[in-house]
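User: Structure please.
Assistant: Input sequence and predicted structure:
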Amino acid sequence: MNPHPKIELLAPAGNTEKLEMAIHYGADAVYLGGKAFSLRQYSGNFDTPELKAAIGLAHRHGVKVYVACNIFPRNSQLSEIKDFIVYLEQIGPDGVIVADPGILDLARTSAPGLPLHLSTQTNTTNLAAARFWRNNGVRRINVARELNLEEIRTLARETGLEIEVFVHGAMCIAYSGRCLLSNFMAGRDSNQGRCCHPCRWKYAVVEETRPGQYQPIREDSVGTYIFHSKDLCMLEYLPDLIRADVHSLKIEGRMKGIHYAATVVKVYREAIDAFYENPEGFAVRQEWRDLLADIGPRGYCTGFFFGAPEETAPDPLAAGKGEPPRLVGKVEHAASDGRVRVDVRNTFSVGDREEILSPGRPVRPVTVIRIQDSDGIAVPHARSG
């Protein structure tokens, strides 16, 4: 069994609202970024006062915070990065995630009290590399996605490092996410955090003697895709990961919405807890499968964990398997008489059948009996905003 008391569930927090979702639905730790120097510059992120507030909020709930500073910087950025790292040490996150050796060295010399975590962008694939990073102050490594489970188990047991692995979410088609498509096609450097996700765009081919005649590669009811892989989902194999002495299970998705954050954290929280309560009797519940299926439009795979790279091949039919659930709102307060105050995100009406997603309990179907506006006046519809 895993020597750690309990494996960590690490969730994305692209902004304050997503941070609140991760905490509410049961994450043990979150990873987030400042307004600069992380690989998700379009996820909202946190300015410096917000970072301090986010760390305070998480710590009050017993949740750890890891701050990403994992770009590959240019010379002109080094001074600002140093100032940012010094600030991080002052506000006390539980770790800083780095990829570039220069940033790592800045952190070691400028903020020696800051725990160092190594990003998957560094492509750590072997014991010698892991030991090199350990000897240079790294405490935790998010290993290369290309490793299989046995290779990960070896790193976890023979390096003395905390090993973190992605278990759910989108996968890049480039090696460990180091991709140049965005630079070439949109002038947005993915390794500076500005990826425009061209691997998710629709494509066609042109034969050189027939200019202007575009032939779809493969087409379904919603479009044509050639680059994107299926999403990763390791829910079925949580026992294998826990028994491999992995320290932390990481969910991808800082740019995804609060429904995604709430759903994935809820499912993995409940599954991890169920395993520890009864390891031998652990079984994946159908409710968990259904919830993840609703938010997985590209279909799911096990990535490279079992040495089968064909697992990641696109599923051209997955995107046509029905409409995903629509988030109608976020419950802000529930009164004892059954009424709830809702921050409305999409229109719903009296008589509608909706579902309530709550931490630690099954999804509950409900019927909207009555809607009142903020002045207490009955209305037939609740509209966005």
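The first strand starts at residue 8 and ends at 12.
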